[in-house]
TrEMBL record, chain A:
Residues 2-211 form the ABC transporter domain. It comes from Loigolactobacillus jiayinensis. It holds the Pfam family ABC_tran. This is ATP-binding cassette domain-containing protein. Keywords: ATP-binding, Nucleotide-binding. One of its GO terms (molecular function) is ATP binding.
Automatic annotation (TrEMBL), chain B:
It comes from the Bacteria. It is a multi-pass membrane protein. This is Molybdenum transport system permease. InterPro entries: MetI-like, MetI-like_sf, ModB_ABC. Keywords: Cell membrane, Membrane, Molybdenum, Transmembrane, Transmembrane helix, Transport. Its main location: membrane. It is found in: Cell membrane. It holds the Pfam family BPD_transp_1.
Amino acid sequence: MTLAIAIHKQMNARQLNFTATLTEQIYGLMGPSGVGKTTLLRIIAGLTTAETGRITCQEQVWFDAAQKINLPPKTRRLGFMFQDLALFPHLTAQANIEFYRRLKAQPRQVDTEFEQQLITELELEAYLTRPVTQLSGGQRQRVALCRALISRPQLLLLDEPFTGLDDQLRQRAIDLTKNVLAKTPGTQVIIVSHRRDEITAFTDNILALER
Amino acid sequence: MPIIHSLIIAISATLITFLVALPVAYFLIRRHTHFGWVLESLLLLPLVLPPTVVGLFLLQLFGKFGFGGRFLALFHNYSLIFTLSGAVLATIIVVLPIMYQALKAALLSVDSNLIEAATVMGATPFETLRLVVIPNAYQGLIIGLLLTFCRGLGEFGASLMVAGYIEGKTDTIATSIYFSIQGGDTSTALLLSGVNILIGVCALLLIHLLNQQIERKKQQL
């Protein structure tokens, strides 16, 4: 899979310029706080618009400022794990994972067998019926990962996925995430982190954003 | 009768303004359009006007020679003036800004990441509203309903201008209190005031409980 990004965005007093062609399965995105890592993910996801540039995924144009093309997020077939996880607090873990099923115009098919496999791999069986507000940080992180992967996205964006976990839980979460990503080779992944060790646990392909 | 009339007016106005203000507030929050502030200003205008001005405007519009009045007259010579429906319409205009402000605050209290998460997963704006925003803002929405209901229950100026005071037909708690005092019937005025205060206190108690629930929810997250 090839994801080509060339964008420019004015962010308050700074500018975000990023150009890369991604062909490997996993990439890490690093950079100091406030440099625009999350903004870049949001631009890729279609949640924020860049002033100029172009994003293509497998020859499909997602964004082209010159041609005024900007596909809505839902047609980009991607999974997004937000920094604060963005789990729906009024729902159980299972209802969060299966949120897709509640949507009428859902272009993606959720594969029940794959869903069960993900739940098993991420050791979530025991927590499925619990409201997400009653889960621990590690359990919530795994529910969010499961939800982001459930529709077999072609691109998975992980924004600081292990923030807020203590060292032991972080290592466990990294191991489980690595295991799951190894079993979804069709999904390209961009992991944002300010910790190099978290990224090198997954890949040596590091993209650096600088001020 | 005044209590029943006031309840009919307040409940009808509350439900109608809720159905109008919810989609408008949601749209204006999600889409930053150039005309958004114009629409919002129009919605909030009655808040900065005396109710009598709103009443006068409605009289002009729906009176015998007004555009709305002439239009309604086409349907079996129907008129809103001096009817309970007229009082409902006047109350809707007066309480709409309160409902809009309360709903806007409730909708803004929902974490925008939740909305974006639903959007990325393929939810339409309506699905996001139904499945994510309303369940996470319902306490705030109920507070909006209660505040609007209470204001509607006490509406006086605009209703009186449009619906007048016809005993058994358009008399409400607020207008009955006024005309009871005018007529020297203090005991009726006090009784009706007591009923209004009781309903208001119950509503405020409910609002307090809902606010506590909202605080607890915030701490849970």
